[in-house]
Amino acid sequence: MQDLIASSLKYQNNTLSVLDQYLLPHQQVWHECDDVASMRDLILSLKIRGAPLIGLGASLLVAHLAEQGTAKVALAQAIDDLEATRPTAVNLMHCMAKLRIALQQDDYVTAIVSAAVTLFNEDIALCESMANHGAALVSSGDNILTHCNTGALATAGIGTALGVIYKAQQRHGDIHVWVDETRPLLQGGRLTAFELERWQVPYTLICDNMAASLMAAGKVDKIFVGADRIAANGDFANKVGTYNLAVLAHFHDIPFYVVAPLTTLDVNTACGADIEIEQRNSAEVRGVSGSFGEALWAPTNANVYNPAFDVTPAKLITGWVLDTGVYDQQQVLVGELKRLV
Ligand code: MRU
């Protein structure tokens, strides 16, 4: 397979490597990966994360295994095992479905490699299109609030919601970003802050529970977030805490946009209530860990509720920024999303 390079995922000289997003920003460690168990572990531990990127990482591994001469039946099993790692982000299912089709071809090795390379390159183009559509919604001097990490680290390109912000900053030069730290795993505080710093976009880091008072003070002009799955009726799942922001935005009359590629659209899921929400380990809420070490602050056996995502209903969303354009509530309510795929 040809070399493919993204911010946190690369295939170079027949070697697949993943930048450890759990250790960023203070340690930059790349893990080589050439078997399904390692990729499963990287995905489950969020060393590789973000809806588009987990699909691409899994796809490149399957393509690599195919080129190494892995038997057809083992490739089918690899696709099933990788698909089962995280249930909410539909991009992973989308990628694995493409590989299953390729596996049916006579020359399935060539077909799988071609499918994986296409998925990777398409993601770069999808990011660019979303960023262009989304940046048109941003005005000079806007203060934009975002949640979790939706940048280059989470995709093969410049990102989804963060790609919009990056593009808007390139156009206007005076954008400021409020970055939700995003408990429990701090993708905002660790990754979005890291990316904005690298891109030289002015930002201010806040704890998630500070968003309400910022909005009340008139300091948030727009909100842009990503998505892990958008249902046919426009409801969407994203990192837990997104729904809080949508409710707050509605109350304060602040435009709230979701940014995602068509690969995040799941028209087979009728509404948000049908989206499976991943439940994660209690330790993530009882304390915190990362490149800085580990801290446990809650009682060792404290009962914990730890859904990785929540669902924002369509009625709270101002606009769906997709690679094909920006859709408003009226369009989504009449079924426009279903017509796109
Ligand atoms: O658990 P994570 O870090 O994989 O969750 C990521 C998110 O919720 C992102 O907002 C979403 O995947 C969109 S990324 C372009």
TrEMBL record:
<dbReference type="Pfam" id="PF01008">
    <property type="entry name" value="IF-2B"/>
</dbReference>
<dbReference type="InterPro" id="IPR005251">
    <property type="entry name" value="IF-M1Pi"/>
</dbReference>
<dbReference type="InterPro" id="IPR042529">
    <property type="entry name" value="IF_2B-like_C"/>
</dbReference>
<dbReference type="InterPro" id="IPR027363">
    <property type="entry name" value="M1Pi_N"/>
</dbReference>
<dbReference type="InterPro" id="IPR000649">
    <property type="entry name" value="IF-2B-related"/>
</dbReference>
<feature type="site" description="Transition state stabilizer">
    <location>
        <position position="148"/>
    </location>
</feature>
<feature type="binding site">
    <location>
        <begin position="238"/>
        <end position="239"/>
    </location>
    <ligand>
        <name>substrate</name>
    </ligand>
</feature>
<dbReference type="InterPro" id="IPR037171">
    <property type="entry name" value="NagB/RpiA_transferase-like"/>
</dbReference>
<protein>
    <recommendedName>
        <fullName>Methylthioribose-1-phosphate isomerase</fullName>
        <ecNumber>5.3.1.23</ecNumber>
    </recommendedName>
</protein>
<comment type="pathway">
    <text>Amino-acid biosynthesis; L-methionine biosynthesis via salvage pathway; L-methionine from S-methyl-5-thio-alpha-D-ribose 1-phosphate: step 1/6.</text>
</comment>
<feature type="binding site">
    <location>
        <begin position="49"/>
        <end position="51"/>
    </location>
    <ligand>
        <name>substrate</name>
    </ligand>
</feature>
<feature type="active site" description="Proton donor">
    <location>
        <position position="228"/>
    </location>
</feature>
<dbReference type="GO" id="GO:0046523">
    <property type="term" value="F:S-methyl-5-thioribose-1-phosphate isomerase activity"/>
</dbReference>
<feature type="binding site">
    <location>
        <position position="187"/>
    </location>
    <ligand>
        <name>substrate</name>
    </ligand>
</feature>
<keyword id="KW-0028">Amino-acid biosynthesis</keyword>
<keyword id="KW-0486">Methionine biosynthesis</keyword>
<keyword id="KW-0413">Isomerase</keyword>
<comment type="similarity">
    <text>Belongs to the EIF-2B alpha/beta/delta subunits family. MtnA subfamily.</text>
</comment>
<feature type="binding site">
    <location>
        <position position="86"/>
    </location>
    <ligand>
        <name>substrate</name>
    </ligand>
</feature>
<comment type="function">
    <text>Catalyzes the interconversion of methylthioribose-1-phosphate (MTR-1-P) into methylthioribulose-1-phosphate (MTRu-1-P).</text>
</comment>
<dbReference type="InterPro" id="IPR011559">
    <property type="entry name" value="Initiation_fac_2B_a/b/d"/>
</dbReference>
